[in-house]
Amino acid sequence: MSRYYLTTAIDYVNSRPHLGTAYEKVTADVIARYKRLAGFDVHFLMGNDEHSQNVFKKASEEGFHNNPVAYCDRMEEEFTSVWKALHCSYDDFIRTTQPRHKAAVQKLAQAAYDAGDIYEGVYEGWYCVSCEAFKPEKDLVDGKCPVHPTLTPEWIREKNFFFRLSKYRDRLIKHFEAQPSFLEPEIRRNEILRLLDAGLEDISMSRAGQSWGVPLPFDPDSVVYVWFDALINYATAVGYGTDDARFAQWWPADLHVIGKDITRFHTVFWPAMLWSAGVEAPRQVFGHGWLHYGGQRMSKSLGTSVDPMDAAAPKFAPDAGPDPIRLYLTKEITYGSDGDFTWERFEERYNVDLANNLGNLVSRVVSMADKYRGGRVAPAGDGGRLAGVAEASLERYRTAMDAFALHEGVAAAYQLVDAANVFIADSAPWKLAKDPGNAARLDAVLFEAAEAVRVAAVLLRPVMPSSCDEILRRIGAPVTGAALRLDHARWQSAGERTTIPGPPMWPRSEPKEITVTEPAAQAPAPEAAAAPAPAADARIGIEDFLKVELKVAKVREATAMPKSKKLIRLLVDVGEAEPRTILAGIAEGYQPEQLVGKTIVIVANLKPRPMMGTESNGMVLAASGPGQPPILVAADDSLPPGTRVG
Ligand SMILES: [Zn+2]
Questions:
Q1: What are phi and psi of 624, to 5 degrees?
Q2: Cα of 142 to ligand 1 centre, how many Å?
Q3: How far is the CA of 146 from the centre of ligand 1 (A)?
């Protein structure tokens, strides 16, 4: 079995992780789980970076000045409890104060020293305590660190040992040329190539007069500079300095997943350090983007920080576990680019992707199998159109995931979910069930829908492990859990299944306030939105209500209106001779393709109104709270179009 060794960055433990930190761990976990699904023997490393002056300072402030390691012990608990709550499946959690790491750091430093790549000198210059990095004058903005504009860098003059980074410039350039995928995405690679073009200076690799760190083997009065120390953790964890056989088995690392701001350390310093010690460079580095909160940098001091524990148990779905946030972080953000999080957007995607879409699909398939076949789903025929969609989804998924386009991989799985929803609406099993002559066709439809759900759950399992296991259990899949391999995502036309009913997996969150979304209100009427609660004398009699004709309708077609952010053009079946066109102001809550097949409620006797060059013939009922996307008022799928509501 081929091995795959991947790592995340290790974190300073001077504060608890926020959702931005969690973004990296969750996406790396998705990659780790995908690689396991793809059959690799995976080793997934996470950890904490403890030899930082910021950590030392924080430990002192917390009363641990005599024993910073005890403070780090406490923070390890805090960090790992968050990672466990998010279902991060790391195989090893490293801490840079561990003896194994001290051994590795000293071995690598000594090897570089013996190679003539470390020399003594004096460092004089600006140092940002928060970055724990020396800042060249040219990088300062108004005399401040560009990352920490509220901090004044310190002017430092001290004895330092330097690492001869300049010596490795040509080799680095050749390495980048020979291994175009060494640093992804491409934009990050171009930044580093420009840096290499400009030339490299030697870097400081030690600090004098400090006790918090690994002592240099050739000068015990100095400690190894925290960045030089931290990078080595990736080698430590697989035996460098302690277990040569294990190191030979697992090194080089296949992938370092890191933030885009530390690519220079990982693709310039780190390979050079390894080469100096006679060790191979890692195979690949991926620099992900930053997660913002409402368009702002996530920061505790700015009040724009989100606690990952809150995201793993959101108020709108407290029992849903970490899968909704895992899905959001993977699906809503192009991996490699910056992304944004807001609670409103998170709740909206939960309702759309999980409650309405995947959750609804699972419920429908399982409940129809239960109602019409006592839970037994038997194959009949070779599989219809969904088999082809599933095959295409798997292909697209594999290509995307192999290229770390995680968002694309999820989209490929959802392509199958969407197709299954449309397939059920078109096949109308509730109609087939009425005529025993259609029994074979009903069997085929139920099996095909169940098989599509099974395949989608296999594909989505790296993103939503526990939910997908539950889906696979309910759908009666023959293989579930860690035993799954990518081959199980191939369409199977054989094998009877027994479905197991259950409560909705993702109950729709309740909108805070119900209002009716009026399609004509494209230019919003604020006075209507802010209308006070009706006074007693504003109540209407039953005769007034009966003037409004509410009817069940089935969406046949849905298309975006090119010039409108809100409107979607629907063609709906209301049980009349011809389907009607209705413009609905629901584009903020739905993609057109999600609407096809939905059973909704419309006002059928509204006077036709011209809107945007089209005549809208009726009104769709939808609910939305303030600032919330609209959610359609749904009717049971078994109701035929045209059924009167009221
Ligand atoms: Zn800084």
A1: -155, 135
A2: 13
A3: 7
